[in-house]
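User: Predict the structure for this protein chain, please.
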Amino acid sequence: MSDDRNGHISRRDWLTGSALLLAGAAIPVAAVHQIVTAPVVMAQAVDTTKPPAATAPVGKEDGPAESTPGGTRPTTPAPEPARPGGTVGSGPPTTQDRPPVTGNPLPPAPAEQRGEPIQPK
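Assistant: Here is the predicted structure, written as structure tokens:
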């Protein structure tokens, strides 16, 4: 790197150091340039002060039907319970709650081995 005899740095080392310094400065400059030139995306707020205007379906002039509390809504396909045959918190877990055993279980862990104690010097 540097010549210890007279304190001069070789031309090759000086050029290598300058190139590394310029490369190190170019990376943050490129990142800032990319951030500055990125388009600004703004979210649009929805005006909630007035309800949307109800439009009548085709062939019907009086508007949409009124909803009734507790009414049923058709779903396709019909909903199924998440846990068939039981409910959450209905007691301690049973063998039916566990996934099926596939393959061989893991072998038992080896017994803990202890060496001789370290003797003080």
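The first helix runs from residue 11 to 37.
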